[in-house]
Write the structure tokens for this entry.
Amino acid sequence: MKFLVTSDFHGNHEHINELQQIVTIHKPDAFFYVGDLSPGRWVFETPESASEYLETKFFPVIRALPVKHKYVMPGNTDFITISKAFQEKYQDPAECKFMMDSSLQLEQFNLAFLSTVDYSKHCLKDTEAINKYETNIIRLEKSYEGTHIFSRDSPIDSSEVYTGHNSQNYDLKYFEVFPNYHAITEPYKSRLNYSIYDHLKNLIDGKPNTIVFSHSPPFNTCADMVSRKNSLHCGSMDVRKAVEDFQPLAVFSGHIHQSVFCSGKFRDKINETDIFTTGNTGVDAKYMNKIAVLVYDTETKEAERFVYDLKGEFAYTLNRIFD
């Protein structure tokens, strides 16, 4: 089978619309989108507005792609409430199957989809979990101190707006706010404490021919390098430990937009497991005028990364420089 994999459009309609041409060129058997559908949270501050944008700009294009199997998963910029709604709505791979921390069988392969990412200093914790094998205790303790915000399962009557430590506004109609980790109540605390390792173990332990699609990359690979100058890595210790313990065939990840720019490569290994990163960004202004996709042959295990130029404009950007 031929897989086509990409990620991290962040709502960029130029990336979305280019997929039709890319699919026509490569003719994949299966298409995989590995997280971060939505524009930045500073663009659409409520789940409802983000959902409306994606239903207009993203899903019609995906559904129209001439690919037999199409799988889409959320990332850390996607509100969990709309991800749950998409999971209910989009269940047919022929049109689009929305996967979130779940797995399925495709021919001889167990395909595992992990949207959950590392616990961080960011306010919104919808798709974050604490690493069971975290070694940076100082970073962990600092993350405990910040505001913790979770999307409500359903809206409430409220006209209050909370401004997080990242200067983003959170309408309390849609979000519940806790001043620090220790103040979190259920069911949010259990969700945050269910480790990334345990998520992955549940999806891949004892299942042969597993291929993992994880928004968060494993630690200390080309896929998680965030600074070329400092050789800095920020991937998940739990994803790495799960790969070492359960040895899937391959892991495809996104999340770290600058991974290929900083490391100079898109493919790595952990023991016998192939590690791939899309290295794509639809939101970083200096780099978003190109789209990157991976094409993978499941028989030969060969992969190529293709980059295509884009000509249009996208308004919702970040002015970051990768070093």
User: Anything to note?
Assistant: The chain has one domain: 2-122+191-309.
